[in-house]
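Narrative summary of target 7.
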Amino acid sequence: MTKAVMSALIRPLVELRLPEWVEPLWFTTKEQALEIAPQAEIGWFDFNQKEPMVETVKAATNLKWLNSIYAGLEFLPLDLLEDRGTVVTNGAGINALTIAEYVVMLMLAHAKGYRDVVRAQDRHEWLGDSPGKRELAGERVLLLGLGAIGSLIKTRLEAFDMTVVPVRRSGGEGALCPGEWREKLGEFDWVILAVPSTDETRHMISAAELAAMRPNAVLVNIARGDVVQQDDLVAALEAKKIEAALLDVTDPEPLPEDHPLWALENAQVTMHLSGRAQTKMFQRSADRFIENLGRWHRGEPVEPRVDLSAGY
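Modeled conformation, tokenized:
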């Protein structure tokens, strides 16, 4: 029997579907998780907070495979997991559809001034003109990140007759290479960040990049807050160097109540809700886990597998 230590939150979705060779051990608290973690060969240690996950991973000294619903696992001790030879699968793509839809919503809401429309309704005021007149059709988008989320963003924006230019390592087929996009920032109306958080992407957008953008450029970040140098972004928005920033993620999270981003009219903060704007995340994760159990037992690769040296 292979012992699998898992959160009781996922129990209703997987317990009756577990194969006979799996012995499940369930936990509801951090203390329970830490107590049984050393027995785990397979672990699914998700908590709402990062610290209990880190502690449980460190305690799971016999762990062969770690699964998670979260796409970004950069906060875990990846070097320790790599040293132990642990295979790690994450939630990449689980919420890709809803996040791509969220990006379209953010862009349309900004283009049409929808935030002002809602405020007018709250005031019972009948507007005589639209507060936003921007059209997406014909505008150019620089898309940094062409993974599961970025690929879905691309097809949806192309349906609005936008020109989407992605950045990927190999370049080709209308894409830019990682070393090319900075010199072309001034060619785009929208810059969308859909990259993982790594040492390479941290603060990839800072004062220099913001200064290179068009005055009408809009920055959309649904990646991680630390891919943007936030103080530089605040300065650019205050000086109106760019038109706006649509931020589902910030650094830190939650954003402090007195942070200037809250008060800026040309910033929208949506509290890292893009991946939560759906109801099927846990079901999709459970289905993927059960499928991966079959692969694991047959000696086949489980997926999507995290490159522990790259961090995603």
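The first strand starts at residue 2 and ends at 7.
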